[in-house]
Amino acid sequence: MPEEEDEPMVKALLLEEVGGPFHVAEIQVDDPIGREVLVDVKASGLCQSDRTASDLGGFPLPAILGHEVSGVVAAVGPDTSGFSVGDHVVASLQSHCGSCGPCLRDDINMCERPEFVRRAEGEAPRVTRDGAPVTPVVELGGFAERMLVHENNLVRIEQPIDHEIACILGCGILAGAGAVLNASKVPEGATVAVFGCGGLGLAAVQAAVIAGASRIVAVDVTTDKLASAVELGATDTVNSAETDPVAAIRDLLGGADYVFDFVGRPEVTKQAYESVGRAGELGIVGLTKPGATLEIGIDAPAVWNQVRIRPIFNGSANFLRDIPYFVDLYRQGRFRLDKFVSRTIRLDEVNDAYATMRDHTGRTVVTFP
Ligand SMILES: [Zn+2]
Ligand SMILES: [Zn+2]
C-alpha cells in the first residue's frame, strides 16, 4: 500500500451554513485505518436531495455533500477485504453493517446499525479543515477530490465504464429502476405508468422496458422530459399540465397494472392512485411534505378492486447486487445510462447548477481531472 505523502491538501465543496451556498475550500483527508478505503473521486452527480439536505441541515457544519460518486481506489486500510489500489469503485449511501437481521436477509436498505461504517468515538475525524472536523454527509462527502469511506459503502466495477456515467448509479438510477425491478417486480407484459419524469422517473421508464412491460405511459408537465421518456422507451405520454392524467390513462389502458409516483405531492399521489387498474399497484417513491396523507375509498368497489399501495424507499435496492447488474445492462446497450447525463461541470459551478436544476432535463455531474 503506497503511503500518503503527509496528507496533501484536497479541494472540496463545503457547506458552512444551513441554506447557504457551497464554497470551494482546502481540506485534509486522513489515511485509511481498519476497513477504510481512500478514493480519488473522478465524478460526482448532483442529486436534488443534497440541495434539500443543505437547506434543512441536521448535521454538524462545515459539511461536504455529494453522494453519487465514482472514483479510483488510492489507498486501503489494513483490514479491507475486497479492494485494491487502482480499482474503479462506485459509492453508495446504503451504509450497512453486514451482520444484523435485515443485512443477513439481503435487505441492507433496512440495516439496523448503519452507524457501523463510521469511525468510533474518540478516533480522529476522517476529514478536517485547519485541524477542525468536517462532516462527510451520509458518510461519503463526494464533492471533493478525495473521499475516505468504509469499504461497506463501495462496490467495485470489474469492467470499468466512464466515471461520469458510473457515478449516477449511486443514487437516482438505483432508486428509480429499483422501484420497478426490486420493489414492485413488474412482470413481463404488464402496463406501467410513471408520474414525474426526472432522473428517477426516467430510470423507472428504462427499467419498465427491461422488465418487458407492454405499455409504458410517461406523465409529466415538461415536454422535454416527456421526449426523454419516449427516447428511453415510453410508449405513450401525457402532459398533465394540459390533460387530466387519470382520464388519459383510463382511456389508454383502462387503468395501469403498475403506477409509480415520483413527484412527491399529495394531489399527484391521489391522481396516481386513481390511475391504477384492478388488482394493480401504486408505488410511492417521491418524498412529500411532513404529515402528508393519502385519502382513499374503502367501500365495496374499492375493496373488490384490490389495489395495493407500496411505499418504496431507495428502490428496495442492494447496491452491491444492483450496480454491477446495471453496469452489465449498460455495456449491453440495454440500460442507456449515457442518456441520463446531460451536462458535466467543475466543482466551482455546483451552486449555479443547483439553481437551474429543476428546469434541467437529465443529470448534472461534477468531473475531476
Ligand atoms: Zn440522491
Ligand atoms: Zn445491518
UniProtKB/TrEMBL annotation:
One of its GO terms (cellular component) is cytosol. GO terms for biological process: formaldehyde catabolic process. Its cofactor is Zn(2+). Keywords: Metal-binding, NAD, Zinc. Gene3D superfamilies: Medium-chain alcohol dehydrogenases, catalytic domain, NAD(P)-binding Rossmann-like Domain. GO terms for molecular function: S-(hydroxymethyl)glutathione dehydrogenase [NAD(P)+] activity; zinc ion binding. Residues 19-366 form the Enoyl reductase (ER) domain. PANTHER family: ALCOHOL DEHYDROGENASE, ALCOHOL DEHYDROGENASE CLASS-3. Belongs to the zinc-containing alcohol dehydrogenase family. This is Zinc-binding dehydrogenase. It comes from Pseudoclavibacter endophyticus.
